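quick one: zinc ion bound model?
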Amino acid sequence: MSLVDEISHLWTQALGLIAKVVSPDWGSLVGLLPLFLLIGVIGPLVSILAVVWLYYFVRRPRTKVRFVEGPRLALLAADGLPMFPVGEPYDVRTGLIYPPGTSQNDAGELLSVTCPMCGIARFADVTTCHNCGLVLKVDRRIAVRTLQPAGPPPGGAAAA
Ligand SMILES: [Zn+2]
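yep, here:
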């Protein structure tokens, strides 16, 4: 046996001894590793997620209010076509219903409106129906609401 072999043998023995002494501690440390991982990595991640979730949760009521005030999505009929209520401006392309008094969408394109009396669609900036002559005051929400039951859309199909 050479000196180098002897030293390395001793070293291995020493390492084994150290390992024996240290091993319980290492074992418990390794056992705690998931916990450290949990605290160090998953903990902050969950906190960030919680903050993001809370941020959206707190903001959601505000967006809800804005949604009621702004355009709302039209309900779809059985045939898959959007059902637009009469007397309220709507966008045929996006299927959005806009509040009374709106004549253009966000892109500046003209909206349509269905006449509450005859059910003919026209551009929302035109207040007088070219078919029956009914003047629709789209800027008055109450007037539009009371006009609605008087003229149900024929067949419910979008005339546009
Ligand atoms: Zn009309």
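Residues 3-69 form the longest helix (67 residues).
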